[in-house]
Specification:
By secondary structure, this protein is an alpha/beta fold. Strands 1-2-3-4 form a four-stranded parallel sheet. Helix 2 crosses helix 5 and helix 5 packs parallel to helix 6.
Length: 219
């Protein structure tokens, strides 16, 4: 985003919105407004002036830094979840997009090569306030591949199509938690309230008539 003038982004948003509305009118379609996401390297989960240029969301580079502790113990996400949720509730035109792995950073699985850690990290990501993106292969434990002149080339390794029993179980876990998130918009957009964080980490999320309670009791 920062390599293009803000006025250009504003014009893109306006033209894309107009084009989408015209296409829907011509084809008797309806749906959500045009949605635009941007990347500013190192940006975290807060509303910056970049959102004034027409963006609805920015990639949140902060989440990947927090995943190690969160995957080791879910309660370590308490402060981060509260901070993300507070930032989202403070503005109706801001959304962070968190991720576990990316083509420009690293693959979470390649660091630990542990299916339990990968499942736990999936919980952290999929239950995070805000929007999320899943990089291909995180859901089956894709490992880093070879690289030549670009160190990050290994993060773009071939997709895993033949699944071991461990990978099948991991995929099923992602599906289960992902479907829970999909059924409950409060997970991503709701008001976050911490209920307990001593013998157990318990919180609720509430958005309109949708309310969920998540409780973690450790191993």
């Amino acid at each position: 985003m920062k390599h293009v003038e803000g006025e250009v982004w504003k014009r893109l948003k306006a033209q894309a919105t107009q084009s989408l509305e015209q296409w829907r009118k011509d084809n008797n379609q309806s749906g959500q407004p045009f949605w635009m996401m941007g990347e500013v390297w190192g940006h975290s989960a807060y509303r910056s002036p970049y959102f004034d240029d027409g963006f609805n969301a920015l990639i949140n580079f902060d989440m990947q830094k927090k995943l190690d502790k969160g995957a080791a113990c879910f309660s370590q996400m308490a402060d981060t979840y509260q901070s993300y949720a507070n930032s989202i509730q403070e503005s109706d035109d801001f959304n962070p997009v968190s991720y576990m792995s990316s083509h420009d950073t690293e693959l979470f699985f390649s660091r630990f090569k542990d299916y339990t850690m990968q499942k736990n990290a999936a919980n952290v990501l999929l239950l995070s306030p805000g929007a999320i993106q899943v990089y291909y292969g995180d859901e089956v434990g894709r490992n880093i591949g070879p690289y030549a002149d670009d160190f990050h080339q290994g993060t773009r390794s071939d997709m895993v199509w033949t699944l071991s029993d461990d990978k099948k179980a991991l995929l099923e876990h992602w599906r289960t938690v992902g479907q829970f998130r999909d059924r409950h918009p409060a997970v991503g957009a709701g008001k976050h309230t911490e209920i307990a964080n001593d013998s157990a980490y318990v919180f609720s999320r509430e958005l309109g008539g949708d309310k969920v309670i998540v409780a973690y009791f450790g191993k």
